[in-house]
Amino acid sequence: MAVISELIRSEADGTISFGDFTLKEKAKLDNFEHQGDIYKVKTYHEITKLERNGMFIYESVPGTAVMNLSATDMGMEFYVEGAEDAQLTVELESETEYDIQIDGADAGEMKTNLGGKLSISVEFGGQPVSVKIQKR
Predict the structure, then answer these.
(1) For the whole prediction, is pTM greater than 0.85?
(2) Are 49 and 89 in contact (CB under 8 A)?
(3) Are 59 and 88 contacting, i.e. CB atoms less than 8 angstroms apart?
(4) Ordered structural domains, the chain, with CATH
(5) Residue with more model confidence, 5 or 116
(6) 36: Cβ–Cβ under 8 A, 6 or more apart, which residues?
(7) Phi, psi (degrees; rounded to nearest 5) at 59
(8) DSSP codes of every residue in 25-76
(9) What does the DSSP 8-state code read for residue 93?
(10) How far is the CA of 57 from the CAs of 1, 3, 10, 41, 125, in angstroms?
(11) Chain mean pLDDT for the chain
Protein backbone atom coordinates (compact mmCIF):
# COMPACT_ATOMS: atom_id res chain seq x y z
CA MET A 1 0.00 0.00 0.00
CA ALA A 2 1.26 3.45 -0.92
CA VAL A 3 1.12 5.38 2.33
CA ILE A 4 3.00 8.67 2.56
CA SER A 5 5.34 8.03 5.50
CA GLU A 6 6.41 11.70 5.69
CA LEU A 7 2.66 12.66 5.84
CA ILE A 8 3.00 15.11 2.90
CA ARG A 9 5.54 15.57 0.13
CA SER A 10 6.10 17.50 -3.09
CA GLU A 11 6.39 15.40 -6.25
CA ALA A 12 8.72 16.07 -9.18
CA ASP A 13 5.74 16.84 -11.45
CA GLY A 14 4.56 19.72 -9.20
CA THR A 15 1.78 17.76 -7.49
CA ILE A 16 1.58 16.78 -3.81
CA SER A 17 1.02 13.46 -2.09
CA PHE A 18 -0.22 13.07 1.49
CA GLY A 19 -1.89 10.79 4.03
CA ASP A 20 -1.21 7.58 5.93
CA PHE A 21 -4.28 5.45 6.62
CA THR A 22 -2.24 2.81 8.49
CA LEU A 23 -1.59 5.04 11.51
CA LYS A 24 -3.46 4.11 14.70
CA GLU A 25 -2.82 7.51 16.32
CA LYS A 26 -3.49 10.95 14.83
CA ALA A 27 -0.52 12.58 13.13
CA LYS A 28 -0.30 16.07 11.69
CA LEU A 29 2.18 18.27 9.90
CA ASP A 30 1.82 22.07 9.76
CA ASN A 31 3.54 24.70 7.66
CA PHE A 32 4.51 22.51 4.70
CA GLU A 33 5.43 24.86 1.86
CA HIS A 34 4.68 23.89 -1.74
CA GLN A 35 4.74 26.32 -4.68
CA GLY A 36 4.18 29.35 -2.45
CA ASP A 37 1.28 27.84 -0.48
CA ILE A 38 1.29 26.55 3.10
CA TYR A 39 -0.31 23.13 3.68
CA LYS A 40 -1.47 21.34 6.80
CA VAL A 41 -2.27 17.63 6.87
CA LYS A 42 -3.92 15.52 9.57
CA THR A 43 -4.11 11.79 9.01
CA TYR A 44 -4.65 8.37 10.57
CA HIS A 45 -6.88 5.34 10.01
CA GLU A 46 -10.14 7.20 10.74
CA ILE A 47 -9.69 10.42 8.71
CA THR A 48 -7.32 12.27 6.37
CA LYS A 49 -7.66 16.04 5.99
CA LEU A 50 -5.72 18.62 3.96
CA GLU A 51 -5.81 22.43 4.19
CA ARG A 52 -4.06 24.99 1.98
CA ASN A 53 -3.44 28.47 3.40
CA GLY A 54 -5.92 27.72 6.19
CA MET A 55 -8.70 26.67 3.79
CA PHE A 56 -10.23 23.20 3.48
CA ILE A 57 -9.15 21.21 0.38
CA TYR A 58 -9.74 17.48 1.01
CA GLU A 59 -11.14 15.10 3.61
CA SER A 60 -11.72 11.35 3.61
CA VAL A 61 -13.50 9.09 6.06
CA PRO A 62 -11.92 6.69 6.81
CA GLY A 63 -8.32 7.80 6.24
CA THR A 64 -6.64 7.50 2.84
CA ALA A 65 -3.37 8.15 1.04
CA VAL A 66 -3.57 10.63 -1.85
CA MET A 67 -0.96 10.63 -4.58
CA ASN A 68 -0.23 13.31 -7.19
CA LEU A 69 -2.98 15.76 -6.22
CA SER A 70 -3.30 18.56 -8.74
CA ALA A 71 -5.87 21.31 -8.12
CA THR A 72 -6.56 24.10 -10.61
CA ASP A 73 -9.44 26.49 -11.24
CA MET A 74 -10.82 23.86 -13.67
CA GLY A 75 -10.93 21.00 -11.18
CA MET A 76 -8.88 18.41 -9.38
CA GLU A 77 -7.07 15.15 -10.20
CA PHE A 78 -5.45 12.58 -7.91
CA TYR A 79 -4.99 8.92 -7.06
CA VAL A 80 -6.37 7.68 -3.77
CA GLU A 81 -5.90 4.47 -1.80
CA GLY A 82 -7.28 3.17 1.48
CA ALA A 83 -7.80 0.10 3.60
CA GLU A 84 -11.56 0.30 3.06
CA ASP A 85 -14.05 2.17 0.85
CA ALA A 86 -14.12 5.89 1.65
CA GLN A 87 -16.26 9.00 1.46
CA LEU A 88 -14.24 11.89 -0.03
CA THR A 89 -15.13 15.55 0.32
CA VAL A 90 -13.27 18.18 -1.69
CA GLU A 91 -13.66 21.93 -1.96
CA LEU A 92 -14.02 23.51 -5.38
CA GLU A 93 -15.84 26.54 -6.79
CA SER A 94 -19.27 27.09 -5.17
CA GLU A 95 -22.50 26.22 -7.01
CA THR A 96 -20.65 24.88 -10.05
CA GLU A 97 -21.27 21.76 -12.17
CA TYR A 98 -18.45 19.20 -12.39
CA ASP A 99 -17.97 16.00 -14.38
CA ILE A 100 -16.68 13.15 -12.19
CA GLN A 101 -14.57 10.20 -13.36
CA ILE A 102 -13.55 7.43 -10.99
CA ASP A 103 -10.98 4.95 -12.30
CA GLY A 104 -11.70 6.09 -15.87
CA ALA A 105 -15.45 5.42 -15.60
CA ASP A 106 -17.99 8.22 -15.88
CA ALA A 107 -19.50 8.74 -12.41
CA GLY A 108 -21.86 11.47 -13.61
CA GLU A 109 -22.21 15.17 -12.95
CA MET A 110 -22.46 16.88 -9.59
CA LYS A 111 -23.01 20.44 -8.47
CA THR A 112 -21.09 21.83 -5.52
CA ASN A 113 -23.05 23.40 -2.68
CA LEU A 114 -22.92 27.07 -1.64
CA GLY A 115 -19.67 26.39 0.25
CA GLY A 116 -18.09 24.67 -2.78
CA LYS A 117 -18.02 21.20 -1.25
CA LEU A 118 -18.50 18.06 -3.29
CA SER A 119 -18.70 14.53 -1.82
CA ILE A 120 -18.08 11.25 -3.63
CA SER A 121 -17.71 7.63 -2.59
CA VAL A 122 -14.73 5.57 -3.71
CA GLU A 123 -14.45 1.78 -3.62
CA PHE A 124 -10.99 0.25 -3.31
CA GLY A 125 -10.00 -3.10 -4.74
CA GLY A 126 -6.42 -3.22 -3.52
CA GLN A 127 -5.15 -0.71 -6.10
CA PRO A 128 -5.04 3.11 -6.13
CA VAL A 129 -8.12 4.65 -7.74
CA SER A 130 -7.88 7.65 -10.07
CA VAL A 131 -10.28 10.54 -9.46
CA LYS A 132 -10.83 13.35 -11.98
CA ILE A 133 -13.17 16.24 -11.26
CA GLN A 134 -13.50 18.68 -14.18
CA LYS A 135 -15.56 21.88 -14.38
CA ARG A 136 -18.27 21.72 -17.06
Answers:
(1) yes
(2) no
(3) yes
(4) 8-135 (2.60.220)
(5) 116
(6) none
(7) -150, 140
(8) S-EEEEEEEETTEEEEEEEETTEEEEEETTEEEEEEES--EEEEEEEETTEE
(9) S
(10) 23, 19, 16, 10, 25
(11) 95
